[in-house]
Amino acid sequence: MTKEDLTDISRPEEKIKEYHTDELTVYWYPKQCSHAGKCWGDLPEVFDLDKKPWIDLNKASTEAIIKAIDKCPSDALKYKVKEGVQIDPAIATGPGSVDYKVAPTEFVTIKMVKNGPLLVKGAAKIMDPDGKLIKESNHIVLCACGKSDNKPFCDGSHARK
Ligand code: SF4
Ligand code: FES
Fold first, then answer.
1. Residues with CB under 6 A from ligand 1
2. CATH assignment of 3-92, given 1.10.600.10, 3.40.50.2300, 3.40.640.10, 3.30.70.20?
3. pLDDT tens digit sequence for 14-45
4. Closest C-alpha residue for ligand 1 atom 4
């Protein structure tokens, strides 16, 4: 998969930030980050908004970083294991992997977050008004407050004053 393939199809111009170790490449899509804080809740030494750059991959093991990224609810973080690196495929192919395939699910659930976004869980497709597919994933965070600059996706604006 190339970096171009990773670009959000709804936002081809969106800048993707990249972070590296010898074993891992991590991609961050700032406009899709709902600032839910799962990543820094799990690994505050790696994901620290008070630092620049805010991601320091040298502060935890590759496995721990992968597990934290797999929990990102909005696909704002993705990882790719570098070629030749020996990591248990069962660990390295979770929802945060760039190679993750969206599997069909029987139900899609949509959970409302108080004063925040809608959390979509289950394989779903988001289409634009012309019927063009703009996102396919089994975890999507949609803006419900109307303030996002990246509609229909939440970009964390609901949490900013
Ligand atoms: S949306 Fe993902 S990248 Fe953004 S704060 Fe939450 S877990 Fe971290
Ligand atoms: S709900 Fe997060 S920006 Fe609107």
1. 33-39, 72-74, 76-77
2. 3.30.70.20
3. 688 999 999 999 999 988 888 888 899 999 99
4. 33
